[in-house]
UniProtKB/TrEMBL annotation:
Organism phylogeny: Bacteria, Bacillati, Chloroflexota, Ktedonobacteria, Ktedonobacterales
InterPro entries, A to Z: GH
Top-rank lineage group of the source organism: Bacteria
Compositionally biased tracts (Low complexity): 40-51
Identification of the protein by name: Asl1-like glycosyl hydrolase catalytic domain-containing protein
Residues of the signal peptide: none
Biological source species: Dictyobacter alpinus
Positions of the UniProt region annotated as Disordered: 33-65
Length: 350
């Protein structure tokens, strides 16, 4: 075989080997390439979870501040003329979905409305309060308090920690532990807000004493002390006037407890009050409620209370007996008429 034929054979051999190698590589690449999915549904990123700030491990003791938004009406706190917007589950119509109720509240001049807040309904509830011309006092719970305070920003600057923990809720040690763990964070989220507690079901001195003792030790005192009172529970209308003085007695006992336990006075908040807490006992459509309401407010004002919230506006509470507005029609009952009259006596003239 001459050199020319030998070179040609070598060339052909090399060419065939290269072709085979290229074919093998393409097969491997095709095997590795995955077919594109025909599903073009866009993926939705999960909602960002709010991460609250972390308080400093070492911080100076908190100094209670003046309650934001309160005004001085000739020596009387403007927050004395509040009420409650209770559960929206008790009545098909309520302040949240009935503009007639909100209009009646605005016309009466109610200044402060206490309402339970969750991340599911906080915006709707605070909007209803704003439309009624009042200031928000929100009731918070541990599971979503940080989200609620963050969500509302400066739209609500007054909060109460839970509701009646002494009425089947956490004992005072557990309640105060949750307060001390959570409230410093909430104060970082809304630096203008005030936080009050322990929201007990009556002037429960033992509970209040322990709460004050533990919050003082933690450097985390509340901005106000709160409790509830219903002086004529299980009492007939004829005997109720004799119990109006119970307001003053309870206030003085709580004030004394504060002085003895923490050496100072904090504002007092009676965040629920009415004739009776029991269904059917409050004669909401009886004209006596004018006398009861006027006497109650005057007693609380003279005792030096800073916040008072009648219970309730129009939610069907107590099978409707505690309402001072008809939740269906927005019609005023005697109690809100009396409350409006007292407001006119103290509210500065424009």
């Amino acid at each position: 075989m001459d050199r020319r034929k030998q070179s040609l054979l070598i060339f052909l051999s090399v060419t065939i080997m290269v072709a085979l190698m290229l074919t093998g590589c393409q097969s491997v690449q095709q095997a590795e390439v995955q077919p594109q999915s025909k599903d073009t549904t866009p993926t939705v990123a999960p909602a960002a979870t709010y991460v609250p700030p972390t308080p400093l491990a070492s911080r100076p003791p908190y100094q209670p501040r003046p309650l934001p938004g309160v005004q001085n009406w000739s020596g009387v706190s403007s927050f004395m003329f509040g009420s409650n917007d209770a559960s929206w589950d008790w009545s098909k119509q309520n302040m949240g979905n009935n503009s007639a109720v909100r209009a009646t509240v605005r016309a009466a001049g109610i200044t402060l409305i206490r309402t339970p807040l969750t991340r599911a309904d906080a915006l709707q509830r605070v909007t209803a309060i704003e439309q009624a011309g009042a200031t928000c006092l929100g009731v918070l719970h541990p599971e979503d308090a940080a989200q609620v305070v963050h969500m509302l920003g400066k739209r609500c600057n007054l909060y109460e920690w839970q509701n009646e923990p002494d009425n089947g809720g956490p004992n005072v040690n557990d309640y105060t532990r949750s307060w001390n763990q959570t409230i410093p964070t909430l104060r970082l989220i809304n630096t203008q807000a005030a936080f009050i507690g322990p929201a007990v079901s009556f002037a429960n001195l033992e509970y209040i004493h322990s709460f004050l003792q533990q919050t003082k030790a933690a450097g985390n005192l509340p901005d106000a002390i709160s409790y509830h009172t219903y002086p004529c529970t299980d009492v007939a209308i004829t005997a109720c006037p004799q119990h109006i003085g119970d307001y003053t007695i309870a206030v003085q006992k709580v004030k004394t407890e504060m002085k003895q336990t923490i050496g100072q006075s904090l504002p007092l908040a009676i965040t629920e009050w009415n004739y009776s807490w029991k269904p059917g006992q409050t004669p909401h459509d009886n004209d006596y409620m004018r006398q009861f309401t006027t006497a109650s407010l005057q007693a609380l004002i003279q005792a030096g209370v800073t916040i008072s919230n009648q219970f309730d506006l129009a939610s069907g509470a107590g099978n409707g007996s505690l309402d001072m507005i008809d939740p269906t029609t927005g019609t005023s009952y005697p109690q809100i008429k009396a409350l409006s009259t007292v407001i006119e006596q103290y509210k500065p003239k424009q």
